Amino acid sequence: MAPGPSPEEAEVVLEVNGTTRRLSAPAGMTLLDLLRDRLGLTGTKKGCDRGECGACTVHVDGLRINSCLALAAQHHGRSVTTIEGLGGPDGEHPVQQAFVAHDALQCGFCTPGQIMSATACIREGHADSEDEIREWMSGNICRCAAYPQIVSAIAAARTRTECTSA
Ligand code: FES
Ligand code: FES
To answer: How do residues 64-107 score in pLDDT, each as one tens digit?
Structure first.
């Protein structure tokens, strides 16, 4: 019989990008570390690791969260979408396409978090003006200060999609 999780570990079942994943993880492991270190989904970035930069943004049950502030075990049974699940070279999400078209990145470190947050922002109905986009994207920091292009990309993406998926 396979050994169960140690008392310090918790069994966590998540649907990640449409696939059910069953893992044993330390009770204190963040969702961010589980995604990156246990599942190899390194598209989600670790910036500040304390809820200040937004680089680690993912969707849980369709809502954006900072995964560095979330314990993986707390999200047992939930559905997680990362940038890898949003779209890729074989089928980019309209927000990803807009970021490319508007040159809305420089080093690219913040970009996965920006795109995950932007997708949710549009879906929430908080992207009706550039001022509104700036306000509702204020939790995502870009050290390269690509903000004008990011705002333009989100405004353009809003007109192209209702972002009802992912
Ligand atoms: Fe999570 Fe900065 S790494 S908010
Ligand atoms: Fe470099 Fe945003 S593109 S941090």
So the answer is: 999 999 999 999 999 999 999 998 888 999 999 999 999 999 99
pTM for the model: 0.92
Quote the ligand 2 centre to 106 CA distance (angstroms): 5
CA distances from 7 to 25, 38, 95 (A): 11, 19, 42
Give CA torsion, residues 45, 49, 50, 55, to 10 deg.
Answer: -10
Sign of CA dihedral 60, 55, 99, 128: positive
Domain range 9-85, CATH class: alpha beta
Q: Which ligand is in closest contact with the Cα of 53?
A: 1
Q: What residue ranges do the domains of the chain occupy? A: 9-85, 94-165
Assess whether the C-beta atom of 145 lies below 6 angstroms from ligand 2: no
